[in-house]
Amino acid sequence: MSSTPLTTTVAGSAAEEDDSASTAGRFARARGVFGKMPFFTKCCSVWLTIVVLAAVLADVIPGLPDPNYQGFIFGDGETNAGPSASHWLGTDNVSRDILSRLIYGARVSLIFSISGVCIGIFLGCLLGSISGFLKGFADSSLMAAVDVMLSFPALVGLLFISTMLESRGLATLVLINAIFIWPRFTRVGRAAALSVSGQDFVTAAKAIGTSRRRILVREILPNVFPAVLAFGLVTMAFLIVLESTLSFLGLGVEIPTASWGSMIAQARQDLLINVWPLVWPSVTLVFTVYSFNNIVDWLRERVAVRSAAL
Questions:
Q1: What residues form DSSP beta bridges with 97?
Q2: For the chain, give me the number of helices (H) and strands (E)?
Q3: What is the pLDDT of residues 96-131, one digit of tens each?
Q4: Backbone angles phi, psi at 252, to 5 degrees
Q5: Distance between alpha carbon 253 and the CA centroid of its chain, in Å?
Q6: Which spans of this chain does the record mark as coiled coil (predicted)?
Q7: Dist. CA 46–CA 275, nearest whole Å
Q8: Which of 110, 103, 109 is nearest to 65 (CA)?
Q9: Fold of 71-309
Q10: Coil, strand or helix: which one is 234?
Q11: What is the C-alpha separation between 89 and 102, in angstroms, rounded?
């Protein structure tokens, strides 16, 4: 009877050691992957890490001003000020802190793009797998719907719907984006499902009498996911540009919500007075999009090399 607590304690200690060992192993693998990256890809990874962490932790960053605070109204702010100790990147034409608006603008861009990609991956995997595996009426119906949706340019559709809406919150823009993003992911998922459906392990599963639903869930979906995920990573950069374009045209999130596109649009008006409000969001947007594309290209090359080795 007395050996039970001792046995439980030993088992718990062993489990903790296993967890710490697995955590250390994951960190070691992450360091190994980072060490194999080219120099510019490392810079891009660090940059994206900073952008994501700043966007997530914006509300708790010490000393970060309210992005919509217009100090000149209360006599304690300067409009179109250059970089200084109190405003590291300067202020805009209504004395709002540019660094603060860049960080909160990053949150808007990331929420818009990540939400769109997640919705696209979910629907692309599900509908694409159903279409490519079941074929028949389900395939023809889904592909007809996809063809109809793809016949409308996404940007034109987003501009049209955004113009018709009286209120344009971030959640509304995400839902509108989902309407136009799912067909592209579904087409990628269908192509991957068609390829997987002809593999030997799927044929073997059919031969032993496995149900179609089980094959779809256990064999098709897991093998379709990597292809759809890769397409999603490529789409991230496009969606960031799309959100900035909508905001630049005044059809994105409503003012005064910070967005890189709206910051660029507002800064054009005072370009001859102060160039910094235009420079910082432009550089941030360009480098963020470049970083996504650079990392995706590196991952694609890495996967291609590993596939060739196999």
A1: 91
A2: 11, 0
A3: 999 999 999 999 999 999 999 999 999 999 999 999
A4: -95, -145
A5: 17
A6: none
A7: 27
A8: 103
A9: MetI-like fold (1.10.3720)
A10: helix
A11: 10
